[in-house]
Amino acid sequence: MSSTTAPPAGAPCGRFAPSPTGPLHFGSLVAAVASHADARAARGRWLVRIEDVDEPRTVPGAADDILASLARHGFTWDAPPLRQSAATARYAAALDRLRAAGLAYPCACTRRELADAPMVHGERVYPGHCRGGIAAARAARLQRSWRVAVGEVTVQFVDRVQGPQSQVLRDEVGDFVVLRADGLYAYQLAVVVDDAADGVSAVVRGADLLASTARQILLQRLLALPTPTYLHVPVAVDRNGRKLSKQQGARALDGDPVAALRAAWRFLGQDAPPGDCTSVGAFWSHAVRAWTPESVPRALAQPAPP
């Protein structure tokens, strides 16, 4: 649902970027509420981006369902939603720049060959097999991914909730993929290119993406793109400690929108809306006035309400 009041020129810009792999659920709502409240409290713009670059995982109709659910919960956006599947020319141009500068290289490694690589923060650290060129034993393989060479860089930034962050990319991630072997652009490249193209200046999202931020900042530097501010809110987890997700069968938001919004607001550590906030409009009027980033729990995860 488009906004009817244009934010002032030069206003900050936030965004919500769901993947269309299923319906909106409570965990997604938390991130959307935080992002929307943060942008509107700063009298800024707010955008919705459908992150369907991973086409095999896209569920037909899910994007439209997500947009309808957002509208039902009172979210407004200031431009037509972007679909990443329609923006691949952006990503191709960015990869061409990285290649031309000698910052990306082809890789013919298979998943099996990387299975013994060390694991850090739940991800395999690429050992650099193809960094100096593809070995003769792999040369006949037709499929290639493309990786960015991270070098010896340490990326540091201050998250608005989680505080100072530092990551030595070679030790904690290794050279990372920007174009997959199946020809699809990787999330890390797509999100950086889109944020810059759309003028996003304030990224508010779940803390499950905190470990990706250093990679994105490196790409911003390599491509001479601006770096937004970052604010990572706790991820909602179930009673078994698993992140709420569509893949785990998280329940769709099909109940009372006001109750769901109030639950997300409490999850974010914000002061409870007054009792007369019984409509979606009244909730957002309160949320825009009362949003306090400093009150968001400094945690990577916390239990979702029952």
Describe this structure in words.
- With about 300 residues, the protein is an alpha/beta fold.
- Helix content is about 30%, strand content about 20%.
- It is built from eight helices and 14 strands.
- The strands form six sheets. It has a three-stranded parallel sheet with strand order 1-2-3, with helices on one face. A three-stranded antiparallel sheet has the order 4-7-10.
- Helix 1 (about 25-40) crosses helix 7 (about 255-265).
- The longest helix is centred in the N-terminal third of the chain and has 16 residues, at about 25-40.
- The radius of gyration is 20 Å and the shape is elongated.
In short:
The protein is an alpha/beta fold. It has helices spanning 26-41, 62-72, 88-100, 169-172, 187-197, 213-222, 257-267, 280-290; strands at residues 13-16, 45-50, 82-83, 104-107, 119-120, 123-124, 145-148, 154-159, 163-168, 176-179, 202-206, 229-233, 235-237, 301-303.
Mean pLDDT: 93
Proportion in β-strands = 15-25%
Determine the structural class based on helices, strands and strand pairing.
Answer: alpha/beta
- Counted by DSSP, the helix tally is 8
Order of helices and strands: EHEHEHEEEEEEHEHEHEEHHE
Oligomer: single chain
CA-atom Rg in angstroms:
20 Å
Helix content class: 25-40%
What is the rounded distance between the termini? 29 Å
Strand order of the largest sheet: 1-2-3
Main sheet specs: 3 strands, parallel
Overall morphology? elongated
* Poorly predicted runs: none
